[in-house]
Amino acid sequence: MIPFQPIHDDAVARLGGEAALKARLPTLASAAALRKRTDDRYLSQMCLRIFRAGLKHSLVDNKWPAFEEVFLGFEPRRVRALNDEEMEALMGDARLIRHWGKIKSVRANAAAMVEVAAEFGAMGTYLAAWPHNDPVGLWEDLARRFSQLGGNSGPYFLRMVGRDTFMLSPWVMKGLVARGVLEAEPKGKKGRRAAQAVFNAWAEETGRPLAHLSMTLAAATD
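Request: output the structure for the sequence above.
Response:
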């Protein structure tokens, strides 16, 4: 392991100052704030992430009010109750992004969120209770429970709702190798766990959130 301070200093130098780095750092939610957010807002953000994948974010965001309308405010039990005919009819709604796999995932994920609520009390309770030093385990559990939330979609969803996690963006993966803390870019389960160990060590050293550490590493990477 190498200390994190030189990485922080490189990021500050590349961006032109401490303020520029701080402006890039993501906003995080407290455990209380995660628990306070309602399940319909979690489902909306989850689906927004899924529809954004592979598309220009502004295109999806501009259409989101229509998604909120047709999916009943993303109230999980109401969305779960949509029948096949109602789901198929959405493919004819020009206001939406008519990708059948993603459209189907909304109802599937509403049902999964109802199950999470039955098990934990609420989606926010589930997210807040997961061990802080095991975000990779949370990524894997999200991918298991929910449709189209594998790969980077799980971590991006967590970042959107303010749940602390590091990211494995191309810049972060390159930075881990360039700094000599990993021999190869962390692709695959073993690699993700190795990256997690690195970020946990840096978090213990600095007291900084995982999200801020990964963003700083990305900013420090050429």
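The two ends are 20 Å apart (CA to CA).
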